[in-house]
Amino acid sequence: MAKLTAIEKKQSKYGYMFIAPMFIVFVVFSIYPILYTLYLSFTRFTGVRDPEWVGIVNYTRVLNDPNFYESLLNTVRIWGINIILQVGLAFLLIMVFSDLKYKFKGLKAFRIIFYLPNLIAAASVALIFRMMLDTDYGTLNELLLTLNIVDSPVRWLKDTMLAQLSVANIQTWMWFGNSFILFMAAVQAVNKEVIESAVIDGCGRLSIMRYVKLPLIKPILIYVGVTSLIGGLQLFDVPYLITDGRGAPSGSLNTVIVYLFNHAFTYRNFGYASAIAFMLFLIIMTVSGIFVLIMNRSRVKDFLNKKKNDFSEYRKRKKANI
Amino acid sequence: MTKKEKSKQTAVYTSIYIGLFLLVLITVVPFFLVLMNATRTGNAIQNNPLAFFPGDALVDNFKILMARANVIRGFFNSLFVSTSATFLSGYFGALTAYGFYVYKFKGNKPLFVFIIVFLMVPPQLAFLGFYQFMANLGFVDTFVPLIVPMIANIGTIFFLRQYAEGVIPKVMLESARIDGANELYAFHKIGIPMMMPGIATMSIFTFIGSWNNYLMARIMLNSPDKFTLPLQIAQLRAGTVWVNNQGAIYVGLAFSIIPIVLFFIIFSRFLVDSIAAGAVKG
Questions:
Q1: Residue B210: which residues within 8 A CB-CB, separation 6 or more?
Q2: Computed over its alpha carbons, how large is the radius of gyration of chain A?
Q3: Burial of A94 per CB tally in 10 Å (0-12, 13-18, 19+)
Q4: Is residue A158 situated within a structural domain?
């Protein structure tokens, strides 16, 4: 960096002053706790006496813990069902509202309505659906029975697979509006002339979607997918509050964070819970890393190509010298 | 357009709008249910979970609810926490973003990249250490851990830094300095007003996030009179007495939902565009 002039040096001082409050709070309330969690993960600690150093025992235990893997599987499964429905629904909606031939009105109003579920606290959402999906007194079963769609009450929250499906659908209900708004913004950014020339060239609606819009929405699609995965891996409020907080039925609603939370605050096993937290962190960082690589795929390719060329240049020169 | 084409067009429009309407129904039914059942007695709800007409048990339900959980207190607790958090997040977010944007100093870029990386760190990683740390400092069961950390709201800082780049011309600050203004004055009289739309937008999200927060409030607060609304709502699910008093539960839910929904609908103009803008830029 070039040397700063006298004025700029004086201004540097102000720069540091302006960002200081935030950094102080950041180090104290974010960085230190993370380091402390890392420390706890190497200890045995119940919150009563002082933490007792035990080395990597917690980590080996996590890696051999079938419940941990099951919670991971549950979390990913719920997310998987959710993301397909969420993105699929958002996609259908943008196909409707970006259609060239049929102009559908009310986009602004629909966006607001579909976004509303995202505003409610997950705690409230969990309680509402806990009551709606109740096997014996729930509204949904009442409706289905009255309309004769089913013969007996559906065990939405009592059957392991249905419970995961229910939670996944609740997540979809909460997030499809958000995805819809994001996708819509990306589609609207597509240059109208490009689409119009495609129409003139005789492209049908599906072709336009595939060859024009889709490639341009891809970045947003990836963004939504990855942020959804990162958020999905941290799923807690709904699965925790919609049944008994221990993952009922039969642990099927045990997501990683529910599992972690119980180890920390129910079994008072802070050391082990911290180790779980760090394992999850590593998984999320890996996913984020892959995401960054995908987003910068072309740059990574160029970088690797350059290295390859440099290396073959080097070998050529070596051969010439011998 | 031929008659055949016209009727086909009408058919398409109609069926799509019907589909959209059904989707709206599904989206809105839970809200409708909460409002409706808040006015019905627990017995009525148990006997007939589905209803299209409101009952008249609103006041009774409210009394039952208040006997168990003081939601008025909870409402004001939530209001206090969320407003304070939002204010700190907005002001210090603007201050920090402004600092990064306006001043050249050593480490400007690396520091900024460093905090952005932290956007990807899951909050669950910190919360165990955070809890112990707060316990050691004696801040458990206070509002401090829920408010003070918002001074370092990274999402806001990131957004406002980009925003400032778009709206604050550095030359304006230069001329202010020439006219004798000091840096803080320039920030308060030029920086903040120009960043205001961005600050407002991020503040709305911060407020909603803070209002809805459950995990942090759950682990930090112990005394019922300090509970925020999400905590009180979550408490309503335990205990057999509630099976018979669902009407009261729904009143509690209404309490936690209606303020946010109203808040959103009033400010929705700013929000929907910026959710989109954030995506297109990012």
A1: B81, B82, B85, B86, B146, B150
A2: 26
A3: buried
A4: yes
In A, minimum Cα distance to B30 occurs at A128
- Sign (positive or negative) of CA dihedral A159, A163, A166, A168: negative
Nearest-angstrom CA–CA distance, B51 and A3: 74
Give me the phi and psi of A44, to 5 degrees please: -110, 125
- Which CATH code for domain B70-235? 1.10.3720.10
- Choose among B279, B105, B50: nearest CA to A134: B50
pLDDT at position B282: 39
Bridge partner residues of A43 (DSSP): A53
CB contact under 8 A, A241 and B234: yes
Angle between helices B71-102 and B58-68 (to 10 degrees): 80
Q: How far is B139 from chain A (nearest CA, A)?
A: 12
User: Over the stretch A149-187, which tens digit does the pLDDT of each residue have?
Assistant: 888 888 888 888 999 999 999 999 999 998 898 888 877
Query: Is the model's pLDDT at B12 over the cut of 60?
Result: yes
Q: Is A243 helix (H, G, I), strand (E, B) or coil?
A: coil
ipTM at complex level: 0.80
Distance CA B227, CA B221 (A): 7
Instruction: Please indicate, yes or no, if residue A304 is contained in any of the structural domains.
Output: no
Structural domain total, chain A? 1
Parent domain of A138: 68-296
For A63, other C-beta atoms within 10 Å of its C-beta total 12
Q: List chain B domain ranges.
A: 3-57, 70-235
The total of other beta-carbon atoms located within 10 Å of residue A195's CB is: 17
B50:A22 CB<8 A:
no
B 153-182 residues inside an 8 A Cβ radius of A: 154, 157
Beta carbons within 10 angstroms of residue A119's beta carbon: 19
The answer as to whether A213 is a domain residue is: yes
In CATH, what number is assigned to the domain containing residue A173?
Answer: 1.10.3720.10
**CA–CA dist B70, B73 (Å, integer):** 5
Nearest to A259 by CA among A96, A66, A84: A66
> A15 in a domain, yes or no?
no
